[in-house]
Amino acid sequence: MPALLIKNVILNNERKDIYIKDGRIETISGKLELEADRVIDGRGKYAIPGFVNMHTHAAMTLMRGIGEDISLMDWLQNIIWPTEAKLTDELVYWGTKLACVEMIKSGTTCFNDQYWNLPAAVSATEEMGLRSVHSYVILDLMDKSKSSFLKEECERMYEFSKGWSSRNTFSVGVHAPYSVSPEMIQWAAGFARKRGLPVHIHISETEAENKDSIKMHGLTPTKYLDSLGVLGPETLSAHSLWVDDEDIRIFAERGVKAIHNINSNLKIASGYRFRYKELKEAGVVVSLGTDGCASSNNLDMLETMKTTALVQKAWREDPTIMPLDELLSLATENGGKSLGLPIGVIKEGYLADFSLIDTESVAFTPNINFMANLIYSANSSCVDTVICDGKVLMENRMVEGEQEIIQMVNKLYKQLL
To answer: Taking the domains of the chain in order of start, what are their residue ranges?
Structure first.
């Protein structure tokens, strides 16, 4: 892998050079005179860690805008699931490529995906150069006749994943406790634990989900899953919005990681009172995600960070609740911790996943506080260069193949309508 030297960037308010070799950050220093296959002059630019989008459904870029102004279950049952029944490998391939372009252009270098047609999605991601975790999705709608097929397919996909590059890893996706039978939830969790894999699951996204769970099981979704013995450090809990104090205690004791998806929660009116303070104080690792484009309409983590901070400050009536550095960690370092990957920090020995931010704009003038400008003033157009695994994926906001991808999606998406 070619060596890369980034010179004259600003990192943590100091001018630095960053030397990358074999996909990792080897040296960070004030002035480096090292041989490199490529040198990039980062003068006038700030280096920040690549964002880690911890919950999305990448190929739902194909469905951007198809189910507007309706409630979650109506959206799922009457719009999304019937549309997804028409998905093909070709559609998922190009939809995932479009998602990768969007994520690259907004500074995301790693995403945690839960979607269909796994080989096509991974092929697209491999070609685009991003880092990812891809779930095989378990969704049986309580139909036990599907069990054998799901188990066999999950095992087959896991074996298939052994041929992926080191940038892309396999996980088990359990759609939700309301859509998957308890037997399949237990099987999936056991399969993942035996192989050291993450389990990516939606938990307590809506108040109605909680009420239905209490009516059916006498337990909240978290307590119900805990009664099945399936929660652990491998559990990545998307949404985690309607959790009570006992749920949070269980998260902390079991090592469950919580993922906040504010834009989709607001747009589908699932709620907004994400209990970040309580989760943090209990020791739960919290990260951020965008959800899919059918519910949040974009994959922009900068927008997610800003909305997260504003809503937390508003409903808590506390402007100190979400400090800037803490907010950046939610979008970067905490994602790395949740996935068990050395990413989300620009540090020697870590994987070389980061972005260069162009501050020559109105949004950064005056540049009194870079982080405040980045999150509250700028938008993703300030992301100039993106590096993942030591490879330059975007420079001067140019992503290879972008126009072809846009043209192909515009040609193909009508197959779903």
So the answer is: 4-49+346-402, 52-339
